[in-house]
Amino acid sequence: MRDADTPPQEPDDRHQNLDGHTARQRARAIRAAVIEVHARVREWRSQPGWQNTPANVHRYETTVNVFRAVESMPEPDSAVAVAQLVEAVRPLLTEWRPGRPGPEQQIFVAVERLRRSLPR
Question: Got the DSSP string for 36-86?
């Protein structure tokens, strides 16, 4: 576990150069990143140090709602459909930011992987 002054480790993104990939390949990468964020948030939520504050509950619920929305979307087969997927995950990008201590650092790392899987 890190303290608040220790920055998160940079994600290993060797496999994330998705320029030129098909819509389905890009969607798979985005979905995999969302699954990782969801897993990290669930881990954070299940830890004994979880604080049931309104802000934490909001961030948890936002993550669960994005995960469910992405899971319910059909497999994208076009750039337009990928753009809709990107819009669905956008709340995760704004909700999770660096600088939060402890297990939230791992959530931020997962969100950075998600950010890097998105079209530029």
Answer: HHHHHHHHHHHSTT----HHHHHHHHHHHHHHHHHHHSPPP-SHHHHHHHH
